Amino acid sequence: MSKPEITEEMIFQCFAAAQQCDDRTGTAASFMDVEEYENKIMYPEFARWARTAGRPDLARLFSKVAGEEGLHAVWLREVYSDMGTPERGEDTARAVEALETIRANCDELMAMNPEGVLEKALMVAIRVEEREYLDIYPRFRDQAIADGDQRSADVYQRVIDSEQQHAQWFETALHDYRQELAATA
Question: How far is residue 107 from each of residues 11, 49, 72, 113, measured CA to CA in Å?
Fold first, then answer.
């Protein structure tokens, strides 16, 4: 019997991308929405997958990154203290729906092919963290600089550095995971 497949693209659809708006407040709201989604929903779900697959090491990594994603929103909220809770963005709503679609079938697939699901989750986490630190958040930082808002620019730079660290953690975890899989094959 062949193992069922959750594709990398299916998992990638679980990520939301913060959107740059014409005004910094709109950009900040989109940023907070996405970072809180990664903190409260997406990475905790990936940690659940890792626990289900008997990989507490990967569950801890996903949980650690989830916590840091929440900190990113806190850091920017200090600049925009009057913002409150941003509305759920369109892309975040789409990502929640994609994750719920996968969740409906994931437990059965995890029982049949946990290695494939976890490997793809790590690959996608790398893609997303790289996208955030190489493309999305540098644009947000540059928008703040252009508007003379150095305080926001400093927060975005701090987040860029953190997202780069996350990508490195996931790259190391994927490398080690693949080596372990090859050693047991």
Answer: 14, 8, 30, 10
Of 147, 145, 18, the C-alpha closest to 86 is 18
Whether residue 75 has pLDDT greater than 90 = no
Closest by CA to 117, choosing from 32, 1, 14, is 14
**What type of residue sits at position 159?**
V
Burial of 104 (0-12, 13-18, 19+ CB in 10 A): exposed
CB 36 within 8 A of CB 96: no
With contact defined as beta carbons under 8 Å apart, do 42 and 15 qualify?
Answer: yes
The Cα 6–Cα 44 span in angstroms is 18
Looking at the chain, how many residues does it have?
Answer: 185
DSSP state string for 101-162: HHHHHHHHHHHH-HHHHHHHHHHHHHHHHHHIIIIIHHHHHHHHHHTT-HHHHHHHHHHHHH
* Phi, psi (deg, nearest 5) at residue 7: -80, 160
Q: Which domains does the chain have, with CATH numbers?
A: 8-184 (1.20.1260.10)
Structure token pair of residue 99: 């994750």
pLDDT in tens, 43-68: 998 899 899 889 999 999 999 999 99
CA distance 100 to 106: 10
Contact 47, 64 (CB under 8 A): no
